Amino acid sequence: MALKVIKVAIVGVTGYSGLELLRLLKNHRYVEIVSIHNTANHSQMIAEAYPHLKSMYKITTTPFDPLHIMQEADIVFFATSSGVSKDLVAPFIAAHFPVIDLSGDFRLSAEDYASWYHKTPAPQTLIDQTTYSLADFYSASTTNYIANPGCYATATLLALAPIAQHHLLDKHNIIIDAKGGLSGAGKSLTTASHFINANENVTMYKANQHQHIPEITRQLQKWQPNIEHIQFNTSLIPINRGIFISAYVKLNEDTSLDVLHRLYTSTYYQKPFIRVMPEGTLPNIKQVVGTNFADIGLAYNQDTKYLTIVSVIDNMIKGAAGQAIQNMNHLFGFDETMGLELIAQYA
Amino acid sequence: MALKVIKVAIVGVTGYSGLELLRLLKNHRYVEIVSIHNTANHSQMIAEAYPHLKSMYKITTTPFDPLHIMQEADIVFFATSSGVSKDLVAPFIAAHFPVIDLSGDFRLSAEDYASWYHKTPAPQTLIDQTTYSLADFYSASTTNYIANPGCYATATLLALAPIAQHHLLDKHNIIIDAKGGLSGAGKSLTTASHFINANENVTMYKANQHQHIPEITRQLQKWQPNIEHIQFNTSLIPINRGIFISAYVKLNEDTSLDVLHRLYTSTYYQKPFIRVMPEGTLPNIKQVVGTNFADIGLAYNQDTKYLTIVSVIDNMIKGAAGQAIQNMNHLFGFDETMGLELIAQYA
Amino acid sequence: MALKVIKVAIVGVTGYSGLELLRLLKNHRYVEIVSIHNTANHSQMIAEAYPHLKSMYKITTTPFDPLHIMQEADIVFFATSSGVSKDLVAPFIAAHFPVIDLSGDFRLSAEDYASWYHKTPAPQTLIDQTTYSLADFYSASTTNYIANPGCYATATLLALAPIAQHHLLDKHNIIIDAKGGLSGAGKSLTTASHFINANENVTMYKANQHQHIPEITRQLQKWQPNIEHIQFNTSLIPINRGIFISAYVKLNEDTSLDVLHRLYTSTYYQKPFIRVMPEGTLPNIKQVVGTNFADIGLAYNQDTKYLTIVSVIDNMIKGAAGQAIQNMNHLFGFDETMGLELIAQYA
Amino acid sequence: MALKVIKVAIVGVTGYSGLELLRLLKNHRYVEIVSIHNTANHSQMIAEAYPHLKSMYKITTTPFDPLHIMQEADIVFFATSSGVSKDLVAPFIAAHFPVIDLSGDFRLSAEDYASWYHKTPAPQTLIDQTTYSLADFYSASTTNYIANPGCYATATLLALAPIAQHHLLDKHNIIIDAKGGLSGAGKSLTTASHFINANENVTMYKANQHQHIPEITRQLQKWQPNIEHIQFNTSLIPINRGIFISAYVKLNEDTSLDVLHRLYTSTYYQKPFIRVMPEGTLPNIKQVVGTNFADIGLAYNQDTKYLTIVSVIDNMIKGAAGQAIQNMNHLFGFDETMGLELIAQYA
């Protein structure tokens, strides 16, 4: 069957995720970018403001106009900061026009959103029409409005999915120590992102208060309903890209590393983007940076009965733009790897 | 009382810890370095091989000779790799000559050493004559042979001491996620320490097998005897110096962050090198790099009942050479801060 | 016209350049990799030794056998260290089989090679059958054996080409201060590549002795015959990838920044991989890392009459594997951008 | 002779240089800090705002009041941004009260300041009462108001002094390629100092327009009057601290590396902070970071007749606070090394 090129609009194109969509979609053979929009909502040649795009994109940003987008494009990506898309998407949802939202605005219930994002949520009726879609577990019954998971949530959920789906987690002891690079902190100029403060440093931030906590918990509950809380902290480390999850969990029943490793291998056997490391080895961040892979490794401690799960992703790709494209591939019936067959730089 | 200058010998001076002893002792007013020895055991002007020492040290390395050292010096530091000092120290111990050993050779029982270091241990009779001395909890009854704690052990023990000393730890759930820079991996050329492999990367190594595990457990047991095991993993992060400990623990009894914070504050009130952060704030690595401080902060999660303890040190100073000097100050009756009043570089 | 897939063999696949060829060729639609060979010359699943290739390559290294390669493949890449290909290529040259050599073995005359590489050169008769091909100035008359330029040479030559081709360089004052990341120093474990020595440091190495000096001089002479010598130094900076050339040159005649900028723009107008920055702006490394671009900017000093030319490339792509693929595209009549339409990561 | 403790005031204490003064002066035995002042001019416990100072300084910032400072202190340091001290120092100069100004406000003539800083200069009469003091060439005839040199100027002038003082520089070809870390760019939040933009990147900035150019030229002219212009560019490299100067110069007369090396060695023989590297070796940044040293090395190219001079300093110490303290030591008759006997961290 001949594939048809789909036309794509991007809102929030000058944020890190928007620029990453531009970068990745360049190599998707069946995508044409037809309109791009920035927050300032003015017109500029994108390649003038962003020299790395010179000669690759001749397109100009234009003011955001939902009707125009729906006429021109087949799908719109929102790569806006949290708090933006919730006020912009209603016309698209009303028209059943495909939307993939990379922000946190539609990942939580209105109540949770208000509590964790400290902002006014979208109306619950809008939220109800969206689907939270971890792309590697995409289900065809989803609506046209996809809430793309958060970066830490993606890495954590992929680390825990096999055991949560089998109800193996001891609900009292789910500890996630997450480490992430500076691109996760976004483009705005803050004390934390000043080179002098980030370089040669490690800082824990938002202890017990990270907005991805309810997103992770809610999805875990879908797999293993008795789960109530997770212990989740994030630390900023001096790298540009990458998330490294160290999850420490106890299990509900006696088992062995062998059995667990088989469980992970079988869960992810048909998932092209999840690579379970050979027994006895753990992944590092560099082997996934620049790719849409999530690599996962296990270590079991006979003394403490704790299972250590390490999961690594590129936060800008698997944790944002890449997963969004994977979700788009699902929505439009493309092979889910299209445009995403990327290998990490070894050196 | 007029203080007397003490004469110092250093064995293993060209390793990272030995060079750090040279650097720090330069600013100790009551220390004179009288002899230095390297593993290769040949003579060289130290400042020729190490240009950063040019014009600061005119001393030459000489072959290792215990009798000569005991004639010339008042104390000897062993800054050798593990497996070296155990074969060299007998004459010093026999003579009750002061030794501070920065290596792991005398921190464990012979049995534990064999299990965790995979090397032949020192005779248990020699081990019995040494004292493991966490310098901030130095006790005057120690012998003249001090086993200086390991870097990760120091940061972890200082994080847990106040609650372990009050028997508050739930022994089943003591989880330590440690992150450390490359200086901790030593000077030898390995795949892991190649810039290309370390930079822009995070790697977990020796999962459940780090040789500091028994060292930590043994000391915790002295404080809270029912402790059996800890869950302890270390990850390599791309910085030169620094350790960042994220400890996740449950407590034996209901308590509050307020009470815990007071416990930490009171435990460390008279300890000049331990700084407990104000309630609600956590320390970062940069505020201690270049110093002998251990900075500690707390966060309590009402949902999971987990207490997060963050502790940060400079692995080369508080975790090695600085603590060794602090122990030396104790041994010789100097103020423990002498030569160690260091402030971190802000920029 | 339907394009035909070409079959590729890679010798030296486990070095940085070989792994980069594997990475980039994955996204070349008309390439199939049919055989790979490492220096150790034994068989291994490449994806087992290099986890970042897991699920992307199922191929196994096999012993090097020229006849077999010529039967199976349409072209062979040598991504070996200097001193290797010179002893292996004779059968390919004899058979007029296409070869692209990424090493320095065939870039210089036998005499220059001996002087600058301190190794026995290939026979001059073999050297005479090769073509040094700066891919952006590829000329169809080249033979089948292409010597791919060195990374520093590429960045320097592209910086100077427009003025050298117009004989504008004052031959007495051609000063190139080059800065490069650690991937340029290769995979072997050296003191210089230890993280502790490279991080937070800058080191000038091989002052006046870099082996790319004769390569640059020889090519400049082809453009502007009166050139005799260049002043060329390289410094190692703590980044993984990238070269930053600061060239300081005087010109033979009075001119203006305007005129020079037009000269650069017109020289590179039809060259898809060379991007001349708008007048008044200079490129940085990040805008080309991950791409085959060379970005060039100019600044002119009215007081000193020196023109500053900044040129930046990704040493592993434009300076090695990418340029080799560009040369391959030329050889086989593909569009030169095929497989190389890459955009830099902004974050 | 018993030395007397001097009392110090610091204006602009919360900038990078001010904080560095606090850090270094802690280990100056004959200094007591009696008052500190920030730009915001309000009162705060400095150790509360800057946790790295906790337990080291109990002092509080107070509003700036010249009369009060002159009553309390023996000297005042201005560690303010450019454009601040010029409006504040008149009362001190009028009273012949010792001032060391780390900013650029009094390093240039009023005319040059206006041209290069694009700000209104101090009155020329005030400027005339100040002394620009490169501390290693301090002359006792200086006034009480010292303009402390800029960081790039210091590293460049120390690189060129021996040959300029002997009038050996070919005035047409003085090329300085300077590289510096992020602390030199200051504390304010800018696009350039965002970690994502600085890390894994190199950027040339202020090409031909750096405000240290006239400062360097003016001092060179004092040594070698025929010098008119220098070619000087700076590039930002991803390190916290350090300046690496690559100077490329031609000489007025035929000479040899041997002769030049002896010239450097003899010029700096009695200067405790200038270390000339052995012939054939060049310094790197790490060997001086954390110290007040400037390390200098030479390489001579027989083909091009260019002499390469590499000079490295810690921009925050030798390039700012350390040199200011060295100047203070001169002013008050202390040994110039007092408080500055610092060794670089090797690891």
Automatic annotation (TrEMBL), chains A, B, C, D:
Keywords: Amino-acid biosynthesis, Arginine biosynthesis, Cytoplasm, NADP, Oxidoreductase
SUPFAM superfamilies associated with the record: Glyceraldehyde-3-phosphate dehydrogenase-like, C-terminal domain (SSF55347), NAD(P)-binding Rossmann-fold domains (SSF51735)
CDD domains hit by this protein: AGPR_1_C, AGPR_1_N
Pfam families assigned: Semialdhyde_dh, Semialdhyde_dhC_1
GO biological process: L-arginine biosynthetic process
Gene3D superfamilies: Dihydrodipicolinate Reductase, domain 2, NAD(P)-binding Rossmann-like Domain
Domain Semialdehyde dehydrogenase NAD-binding stretches: 7-145
Active site: C151
GO CC field: cytoplasm
InterPro entries: AGPR, AGPR_AS, AGPR_dimerisation_dom, AGPR_type-1, NAD(P)-bd_dom_sf, Semialdehyde_DH_NAD-bd
Enzyme class: oxidoreductase
Biological or metabolic pathway of the protein: Amino-acid biosynthesis; L-arginine biosynthesis; N(2)-acetyl-L-ornithine from L-glutamate: step 3/4
Subcellular location: Cytoplasm
Family in the record: Belongs to the NAGSA dehydrogenase family. Type 1 subfamily.
Function: Catalyzes the NADPH-dependent reduction of N-acetyl-5-glutamyl phosphate to yield N-acetyl-L-glutamate 5-semialdehyde.
Protein name according to UniProt: N-acetyl-gamma-glutamyl-phosphate reductase
Species assigned in the record: Leuconostoc citreum (strain KM20)
Lineage: Bacteria, Bacillati, Bacillota, Bacilli, Lactobacillales
